[in-house]
Amino acid sequence: MSVTFWNQADENDELNMSNTNAGDVMEFIGMPPEEWCGRISARDLAVLCGRALIRLAGTEDEARPVKVERAPRKPTVITCERLAGYRLGRAAELREMAIRAGDGVICWG
Predict the structure, then answer these.
(1) Has residue 14 got a pLDDT over 90?
(2) What pLDDT digit, counting tens, does each position of 42-100 carry?
(3) What is the DSSP letter of 8?
(4) pLDDT of residue 34
(5) Cα(5)–Cα(16) distance, rounded to whole angstroms?
(6) Given its phi and psi angles, is residue 54 left (phi above 0), alpha (psi -120 to 50 degrees) or beta?
(7) From CA 29, how far away is CA 22, in angstroms rounded?
(8) Which of 80, 100, 102, 107 has its CA 20 to 30 Å from the CA of residue 47?
(9) Rounded to an integer, what distance in angstroms lies between the CA atom of residue 6 and that of residue 14?
(10) Are 28 and 17 in contact (CB under 8 A)?
(11) SS3 55
C-alpha cells in the first residue's frame, strides 16, 4: 500500500511513498504518522518541513535494512529498505510542493 501527497490545485503535482515510508516522513517532520489521509495548508506544511530540515541539517538520516517477519499461520510482513537520507530528501520534496502550492492545500491519502 502507499500514501500519495498532492497539491489540491494541481493534480499532476504529487509525491507517492509506501505506507511505512510515509509514516516515517510524517513523524520526521512532526505530523502524526498514523493519519493515513488528511489535508494541511501548504504554508503550514512548508514550515513543518523547513523546521525539520534545519533541525536535522548535518545529521545522518540513517538507512533502514529490509525486515522480514514470519510467524506460523500468520502473514509474512516485509518492511522495505530505506536508504540513508530518504527522509531528508522526501521532506525537501514535500516542502517544494508546499511552496508551489502557495496559499493552497496539500492533501494525502
Answers:
(1) yes
(2) 999 999 999 999 998 878 788 889 999 999 999 998 888 888 899 999 999 999 999 99
(3) T
(4) 77
(5) 6
(6) alpha
(7) 11
(8) 80
(9) 4
(10) no
(11) helix
* Size (the chain), residues: 109
Angle at 52 between CA 9 and CA 6, to 5 degrees: 20
| Phi, then psi, of 49 in degrees rounded to 5 | -65, -45
Domain-wise residue ranges, the chain: 2-57+85-108
* 73-82: long-range contacts, CB 8 A cutoff, minimum separation 24: 79/20, 80/18, 80/20, 80/21, 82/20, 82/21, 82/24
Q: What are phi and psi of 21, to 5 degrees?
A: -65, -40
Quick check: helix, strand or coil at residue 2?
strand
CA angle 41–94–13, rounded 5-degree value: 85
What is the residue type of 20? T
